Amino acid sequence: MSTQDNSFNKMMQNIPALSVIFKEGDTGRVMYVIMSGEVEIRKKTGKNSYKTLTVLKKGDFFGEMAIIENKPRTATAIAKVQSRLIMLDSEALYTMVGKSPDFASKMIKTLSSRLRKADQLIEYLLGSNDEKQVVMGLAVYVKGHPELDTGSGEYKVSLREFMRWASQNLGYPDQVILEAIKRLITRKVLTVNTSSGKISEIYVAQNLLSRM
């Protein structure tokens, strides 16, 4: 067996059905190409809830943004059935892109499509102008408060403290800001912990704010 074959086999992984490949918020140092099987990509929408974003099949790839941007995983990947994956670190990825024009072309087209869909989804989710201003305000606010990073792909923001900041910086009345936040919560753009019976803290996904 050649050295190239040995290297290729080392990159292969056989994943049992229903196994978690990585979790949202994990540090990502590799991406995956599906050789066989199916992989579900899901996103947290609350403390104990999630939404399936897509199901990927043979020839698809996932997990690339974590190594391209050097940021935590923005979603969870689970093998729906027994799957065989090629695992690529950043060096192997750039080597493959350089040596395989077909792979590079597919990757560019896929990334472009995903970014376009993400922008369209954000436009739909944010709705009215005051809601957009609130989310853009959150993006500015958390940049000045790195301690709000939960380490799991989202920020935990005190509603009282953000309202105080927003009333001074966004140019909207407090009631307008609060109503916009409530609508964003209803559409699950923002999430909350309602165990106390009232909204005291809001959670916002880092990947949403990174698009602002």
Automatic annotation (TrEMBL):
Transmembrane segments: none
Protein's name in the database: Cyclic nucleotide-binding domain-containing protein
Domain Cyclic nucleotide-binding: 19-114
Gene3D superfamilies from the UniProt entry: Jelly Rolls
CDD domains linked: CAP_ED
Species whose genome carries this gene: Oceanispirochaeta crateris
